[in-house]
Amino acid sequence: AVLGFVQEIGQRYGKFPAFKGISFNMYASCMPWFGSIHSGYDDTCIRLFEEETGIKVPVDPKAPDRFSRRYGFLTYECRPSWVAWRCAKIRELFGKIHNTLATARPDLRVTVTLWCEPMILGLFGPVAASHQVYARSSMYDVYRDAGIDVSLYKDTPGLEIDIER
Description:
- Helices cover about 45% and strands about 10% of the residues.
- It is built from six helices and three strands; from the N terminus they run αβαααβααβ.
- The chain has a three-stranded parallel β-sheet with strand order 1-2-3, covered by helices on one side.
- Helix 1 packs parallel to helix 4 and helix 3 crosses helix 4.
- The longest helix has 24 residues, at about 80-100.
Protein backbone atom coordinates (compact mmCIF):
# COMPACT_ATOMS: atom_id res chain seq x y z
CA ALA A 1 0.00 0.00 0.00
CA VAL A 2 2.83 2.42 0.86
CA LEU A 3 4.60 1.73 -2.44
CA GLY A 4 1.36 2.26 -4.36
CA PHE A 5 0.84 5.59 -2.58
CA VAL A 6 4.42 6.68 -3.35
CA GLN A 7 4.03 5.61 -6.99
CA GLU A 8 0.85 7.67 -7.31
CA ILE A 9 2.55 10.74 -5.82
CA GLY A 10 5.46 10.36 -8.23
CA GLN A 11 3.17 9.97 -11.23
CA ARG A 12 1.00 12.95 -10.27
CA TYR A 13 3.67 15.42 -9.23
CA GLY A 14 6.95 14.20 -10.69
CA LYS A 15 6.39 16.19 -13.87
CA PHE A 16 6.50 19.47 -11.92
CA PRO A 17 10.03 20.92 -11.48
CA ALA A 18 9.08 22.41 -8.09
CA PHE A 19 8.37 18.93 -6.74
CA LYS A 20 11.58 17.64 -5.15
CA GLY A 21 10.38 14.52 -3.31
CA ILE A 22 8.60 13.32 -0.21
CA SER A 23 9.32 13.26 3.50
CA PHE A 24 8.24 10.72 6.06
CA ASN A 25 7.92 12.40 9.47
CA MET A 26 8.77 9.66 11.93
CA TYR A 27 7.06 9.83 15.30
CA ALA A 28 6.78 6.81 17.60
CA SER A 29 3.31 5.96 16.33
CA CYS A 30 4.02 6.46 12.61
CA MET A 31 4.60 3.86 10.02
CA PRO A 32 6.65 2.65 8.12
CA TRP A 33 8.84 1.60 11.05
CA PHE A 34 8.44 -0.20 14.35
CA GLY A 35 8.33 3.02 16.40
CA SER A 36 9.98 1.49 19.45
CA ILE A 37 11.56 -1.69 20.76
CA HIS A 38 8.13 -2.56 22.20
CA SER A 39 6.49 -3.42 18.87
CA GLY A 40 7.16 -5.90 16.08
CA TYR A 41 6.58 -9.20 17.87
CA ASP A 42 3.75 -10.34 15.61
CA ASP A 43 3.71 -13.72 13.85
CA THR A 44 4.83 -12.33 10.47
CA CYS A 45 7.87 -10.46 11.82
CA ILE A 46 8.98 -13.44 13.87
CA ARG A 47 8.62 -15.84 10.93
CA LEU A 48 10.70 -13.54 8.71
CA PHE A 49 13.31 -13.00 11.42
CA GLU A 50 13.74 -16.75 11.89
CA GLU A 51 13.89 -17.42 8.13
CA GLU A 52 16.32 -14.61 7.36
CA THR A 53 18.67 -14.93 10.35
CA GLY A 54 18.45 -18.62 11.20
CA ILE A 55 17.82 -17.66 14.83
CA LYS A 56 14.99 -19.71 16.34
CA VAL A 57 12.71 -17.88 18.75
CA PRO A 58 11.93 -20.58 21.36
CA VAL A 59 8.30 -19.65 21.93
CA ASP A 60 5.30 -21.75 20.94
CA PRO A 61 3.77 -19.91 17.94
CA LYS A 62 0.26 -20.65 19.26
CA ALA A 63 0.86 -19.66 22.90
CA PRO A 64 -1.53 -16.94 24.11
CA ASP A 65 1.40 -15.12 25.76
CA ARG A 66 3.72 -15.52 22.73
CA PHE A 67 4.10 -11.78 22.13
CA SER A 68 5.45 -10.95 25.59
CA ARG A 69 7.59 -14.10 25.62
CA ARG A 70 9.06 -13.18 22.21
CA TYR A 71 9.79 -9.71 23.52
CA GLY A 72 11.59 -11.18 26.51
CA PHE A 73 13.72 -13.52 24.41
CA LEU A 74 14.52 -11.07 21.61
CA THR A 75 15.32 -8.05 23.75
CA TYR A 76 17.28 -9.89 26.45
CA GLU A 77 18.82 -12.93 24.73
CA CYS A 78 19.67 -11.70 21.24
CA ARG A 79 18.98 -7.98 21.14
CA PRO A 80 21.88 -6.98 18.81
CA SER A 81 20.73 -9.43 16.11
CA TRP A 82 17.07 -8.48 16.58
CA VAL A 83 17.72 -4.73 16.36
CA ALA A 84 20.09 -5.09 13.38
CA TRP A 85 17.54 -7.20 11.49
CA ARG A 86 14.75 -4.71 12.19
CA CYS A 87 16.92 -1.82 10.98
CA ALA A 88 17.86 -3.74 7.82
CA LYS A 89 14.18 -4.43 7.05
CA ILE A 90 13.17 -0.80 7.48
CA ARG A 91 16.15 0.34 5.37
CA GLU A 92 15.09 -2.17 2.71
CA LEU A 93 11.58 -0.71 2.75
CA PHE A 94 12.84 2.86 2.42
CA GLY A 95 15.08 1.73 -0.44
CA LYS A 96 12.01 0.35 -2.23
CA ILE A 97 10.13 3.57 -1.48
CA HIS A 98 12.98 5.62 -2.96
CA ASN A 99 13.23 3.39 -6.05
CA THR A 100 9.47 3.61 -6.57
CA LEU A 101 9.49 7.41 -6.39
CA ALA A 102 12.56 7.63 -8.64
CA THR A 103 10.72 5.86 -11.46
CA ALA A 104 8.78 9.11 -11.92
CA ARG A 105 11.95 11.20 -11.98
CA PRO A 106 15.43 10.00 -10.97
CA ASP A 107 16.36 13.14 -9.02
CA LEU A 108 13.43 12.91 -6.58
CA ARG A 109 14.35 12.51 -2.90
CA VAL A 110 12.89 10.54 -0.03
CA THR A 111 13.64 12.15 3.31
CA VAL A 112 13.20 10.28 6.58
CA THR A 113 12.67 12.99 9.18
CA LEU A 114 13.38 11.95 12.76
CA TRP A 115 11.94 14.00 15.62
CA CYS A 116 13.54 13.97 19.07
CA GLU A 117 11.06 15.66 21.41
CA PRO A 118 7.89 13.89 20.21
CA MET A 119 9.72 10.56 20.39
CA ILE A 120 10.82 11.13 23.97
CA LEU A 121 7.31 11.98 25.15
CA GLY A 122 5.78 9.14 23.14
CA LEU A 123 8.15 6.54 24.53
CA PHE A 124 8.99 7.74 28.03
CA GLY A 125 5.82 9.56 29.09
CA PRO A 126 5.37 13.01 30.66
CA VAL A 127 8.37 15.30 30.97
CA ALA A 128 10.71 14.29 33.78
CA ALA A 129 14.34 14.71 34.78
CA SER A 130 14.96 11.18 33.48
CA HIS A 131 14.27 12.43 29.94
CA GLN A 132 17.23 14.78 29.90
CA VAL A 133 20.23 14.12 27.69
CA TYR A 134 22.61 11.61 29.33
CA ALA A 135 19.90 10.48 31.77
CA ARG A 136 18.16 8.43 29.06
CA SER A 137 19.21 6.40 26.05
CA SER A 138 20.81 8.38 23.24
CA MET A 139 18.51 9.29 20.36
CA TYR A 140 20.74 7.17 18.10
CA ASP A 141 19.85 4.13 20.26
CA VAL A 142 16.18 5.11 20.47
CA TYR A 143 16.00 5.35 16.65
CA ARG A 144 17.88 2.04 16.23
CA ASP A 145 15.53 0.27 18.62
CA ALA A 146 12.61 1.68 16.61
CA GLY A 147 14.08 0.39 13.34
CA ILE A 148 16.24 3.17 11.89
CA ASP A 149 20.02 2.94 12.03
CA VAL A 150 21.06 6.26 10.53
CA SER A 151 24.39 4.80 9.38
CA LEU A 152 22.54 2.58 6.87
CA TYR A 153 21.36 5.63 4.91
CA LYS A 154 24.64 7.37 4.22
CA ASP A 155 25.50 5.93 0.81
CA THR A 156 22.28 6.25 -1.19
CA PRO A 157 21.86 9.48 -3.11
CA GLY A 158 18.27 10.66 -2.91
CA LEU A 159 17.53 8.74 0.28
CA GLU A 160 18.36 10.91 3.24
CA ILE A 161 17.91 11.29 6.98
CA ASP A 162 16.93 14.61 8.51
CA ILE A 163 17.10 14.89 12.30
CA GLU A 164 15.22 17.59 14.19
CA ARG A 165 17.47 19.43 16.62
